[in-house]
Amino acid sequence: MKRITTISLIAVASFVGWFLSCERNMNKEPDDQQPADTVIRVSYIADNSKSVSSSINAASGGSIQAEDKFGVTFELTIPPGALKNNTSITITPLQSFSISGAGGSSCKECTGSEENCCHHGILLEPSGLQLDSSATLTVRFPAGSFPFEGSGLIVYIDSAVNSYSSYPTQTNTAERTLTAQIRHFSGYGTDETNKERTRREIIEKCRKLDSKVGTDEFYLYLYDVDMMHWLDGFTGPGGEEYSDLVALLESLMLQIWSKQVSWILARYSGKATCDAIERLGGADYSLSHYIGWHNGSSFATLRTSIRNTLLTALRQSLEKGRALCQMDSCMAGIELLSCARAAYIGSGFEEPTLIEALNQNLGTCCKGQITISADKTSIRMHPLSRTNLSDCYAVITAVVTGADGKPIENIGVWFGSDYPNTAPDGGTTDAEGKVKTVITGSNAGEFDELGNSECTFVAHAYVGGSEILSEPLTITFKMPTIELKLKYDLSYSQTFNSGYSSLMTISINGNATRLASTYPSNYTCSGGFSRSYNYSASTGTETITGTIHPDFTQYPRCPFDILLASLERILLPEGNYKYTYYIKDLIFYPTDIFLFDIIECHNPGTCMTKRLDNWSSDFILQGFVGGYKFENNGGGEFPELIWSNSVTSETTNLSASLNVQISVNY
After folding, report:
1. Pick the CATH number of 369-478 from 2.60.40.1930, 1.20.272.10, 3.40.1180.10, 3.40.50.300
2. Is beta strand 177-184 parallel, antiparallel or unpaired with respect to 170-172?
3. What H or E segment, with its residue span, contains residue 355?
4. Model pTM greater than 0.70?
5. What is the pLDDT of residues 450-491, one digit of tens each?
6. What is the pLDDT of residues 557-578, one digit of tens each?
7. Where are the domains of the chain?
8. What burial class does residue 618 get, using C-beta atoms within 10 Å of its C-beta: 0-12 exposed, 13-18 middle, 19+ buried?
9. Are the CB atoms for 479 and 583 separated by under 8 Å?
10. Confidence bin at 235 (pLDDT 50/70/90)
């Protein structure tokens, strides 16, 4: 037997968004003239011994299955994204379940495992859980035990409030399954297709919908009634026709919609507001889904009255919006014109001059401008002390104003930069039309060899449907420099009874400046050092002299490299969790300033060029070889390195000193 879920159901489902089938109480209010057999009654008892629980991952979805004592299985398949969070799902089969009242029942009650009954059910927990998309409930009967002559139903049930509501159900006789889409956790059961029960369900649902005419709840109840139209084309057990029930549903719906349309027209005709446009547009959208019904021409007449009123409202909104745009209320003009434009597109009107006028006025309404400024245009990458941080960040302010020069509130502003991933955070304009953001060294781009990085920032916003841009703002980020002053002196003499004597003196003095960073590698080092070396020795028979090679008297490069810079993160006072980084300590290691060539001459005039003797170079580098850690204090000062050594004996007189001063500045 075929089950037809018409296009109108799908469309209405998308319009309503989700349905609340958990509040379908089939009990009418007390009415002395209501026969007892017109009420659908449900009762059941849960079988907790058959409960099954499983944790379902929200991102990937999953399935859970349980079986009742009769061998009927219930499988719930939840698609990815239907759950908001990972959730423990429980299925509890029913050990007994009966439906009585309207329509009676030809099903046997499930009181023994040998019975071949059509009423089976489950409770889904957490009770009341709403899914973001439909889950599939499949009920499978054991072999030889499919109780339905033709088609069966999956129904929502709640014995506490005596609720019953049928769902469009796919029946597969060969597989012995019933399948329905559900979006709410409560009780669900299986039922035979019962014409009288379906009739009562249609009447009761239409009664509830009729009571919601002229209220915001109308469209929530509307879906539940529209869903009954799956009966169109349905044939029940034994070939029983349901066309009379479809005619009943369509007739009742036409009466209800006639009341709803009358209410909408009375309330919103002649009004040019977003509320009126949305109400009229929503009714137009809903009524379009009934055109295919048997009484579709009558629904078309209702829709025509709505569409004519909507078109008038759009034209009136154009004029009102245009006027607002020329006054101090341009944002209200944008809102109204935007509502009208969206409704025009959704309605499918073919009025070219109207949409052109809407677009044109949106493009010129509140035609604003955006400016960008900063409280400083130069930012230090690192503070010189822990307490003076003001030079290490800047506050950028973007201001959005309308064509009248007045600030515009609640406009989204974002920033762009000429370097990837360096743009600051954006925001929404306040009552003064302002968005403020803080930039620090983390927003810098590439640095040149002098330690400067120039970045250009632009503010963006959409006003009146058009993007506006500010003039560019250039901020310079500056890397600090390190100045190193170095003075080294050595005097070393030896005298022996054999007549041998020698004297060596070395002096290195100067200063150099380089960036206080290991980046960029192509930094510029300025300054220089002078080096001198003198050596004389006499063996009694030979005289030896030594001087520094002329190519090595001047050392124009930096005498050190930074092995490591240790940074301390400091929270800025106004920055929304923005930080700057204080140079806590630096570890240097020397380059080749202590290594140089000498010219050594032996009497009677034999000279050679050679590198300073290894034993001497090792001694010279004492106190500085392997690097030295300079620790900064809170005030931004590095204490100087002072090293000295002296040795005096009968044959040797040695004195050596090294003084290194470090300073970081801009």
Report:
1. 2.60.40.1930
2. antiparallel
3. helix 352-364
4. no
5. 889 999 999 999 886 678 899 999 999 999 988 889 898 989
6. 888 777 777 888 999 887 667 8
7. 7-261, 269-365, 369-478, 481-665
8. exposed
9. no
10. low
Name the amino acid, one letter, at 380.
Answer: R
The first and second tokens of residue 64, run together, are 């859970």
Whose CA is closest to 565, among 664, 661, 422, 640?
A: 664
Alpha helix ranges (H) inside 234-325 = 243-268, 274-287, 296-325
DSSP letter at 534 equals E
Q: For residues 659 and 488, give the distance between their C-alpha atoms in angstroms, rounded to a whole number.
A: 7
- Residue 583: in which H helix or E strand, if any? strand 579-590
Residue ranges with strand state E in 341-451: 369-374, 378-380, 394-401, 412-417, 427-428, 434-439
**CA dihedral sign, ordered 274, 323, 461, 409:** negative
Separation of alpha carbons 72 and 61, rounded Å: 24
Given the structure tokens 């009379």, which residue do they identify? 244
Q: How far is the C-alpha of 521 from the C-alpha of 447, rounded, in Å?
A: 10
Give the pLDDT band of residue 100 (cuts 50, 70, 90): confident
Q: Distance (Å, rounded) from C-alpha 2 to C-alpha 168?
A: 11
Q: Encode burial over 511-537: b for 16+ CB neighbours within 10 A, e otherwise.
A: bbbbbbbeebeebebebebebebebeb
503/566: higher pLDDT: 503
3-state DSSP call for residue 240?
coil
Q: Exposed, middle or buried by CB within 10 Å (0-12, 13-18, 19+), for 39? A: middle
Which architecture does CATH list for 7-261? Sandwich (2.60)
Q: In the numeric block, which tokens belong to residue 356?
A: 């052109």
Phi-psi group of 366: left, alpha or beta (phi > 0 → left; psi -120 to 50 → alpha; rest → beta) = left
Calculate the alpha carbon distances from 233 to 1, 6, 148, 289 in Å: 10, 10, 19, 17
